[in-house]
TrEMBL record:
UniProt region (Disordered), positions on chain: 1-28
Protein family membership: Belongs to the short-chain dehydrogenases/reductases (SDR) family.
CDD domains: SDR_c1 (cd05355)
Keywords annotated in UniProt: Oxidoreductase
Biased composition (Polar residues): 1-18
Keyword Zinc: no
Protein known as: Glucose 1-dehydrogenase
Molecular function via GO: oxidoreductase activity, acting on CH-OH group of donors
SUPFAM superfamilies xrefs: NAD(P)-binding Rossmann-fold domains
Amino acid sequence: MSNNPNQYPTSAPAQEQPHQPGKQQAMHPEPEIIKSTHQGSNKLKDKVALISGGDSGIGRSIAVLFAREGADIAIIYLEEQEDAEKTKQLVEQEGRQCLLFKEDITDPDVSEKCVEETVKAFGKINILVNNAGVQFQQKDLINISNEQLDRTFKTNIFSMFYLTKAVLPHLKEGDSIINTTSITSYHGHDELIDYASTKGAITTFTRSLSTNLMKQKKGIRVNGVAPGPIWTPLIPSSFDAETVEKFGQDTPMGRMGQPSEVAPAYLFLASDDASYITGQVIHVNGGEIING
């Protein structure tokens, strides 16, 4: 795929996947994970990053980019073993180690387990990326079942509390927490009401935790990234084919984004380049102006 932003696909062919979180290898075209022009410069040398939802899409891109910058990686994923193994392979090709945890992060005990095993393997955790999420397209509020509502909130926001609580005792001054929120946190979404609500909670969680940790003078920074329409397995596994075919075309740039275009925002926030930044959200959305 070209590194010229004007030559990325404007959209994808109509397609659907029957089950979330979706399979990256089943997408056509497959998302771009890392830009071939990116030369690592040890921005994260010998750091350790724990990434939820790290098997595919934005999570995979973050994992590979962090590895290129010198970090060892641990990823938590729900069930897509083939995607997870591919991410591990890509990380190892960058000369770094990668742990895989096939777990359901809606279980509070999972966070403790994954954190303990990561620290046992690598001796530390420096970066937490809360990235896992689900979304379910519903045209009417009354169609959002109690079961869907429960799953969306447990996966998208409850898990961030569980995982952050487990990681926090291991973080030190200069370490970083980065949460994946969404453009929907700022302007809502009429067919993703429960999802957008969790993303609003994530934005507020990010701001509140950053203030809390600064008041405690722990020196741990907390920031967020708010992607717009990015081509990941979540898209064909949560929208109908007609929506997928038009995905991203209503942005000012007129196209969907790639994971490779989002991950550098996480790298910036994780690195010392962002040493004076906390409680903020970077908007990677194809040009929509967000005041918030």
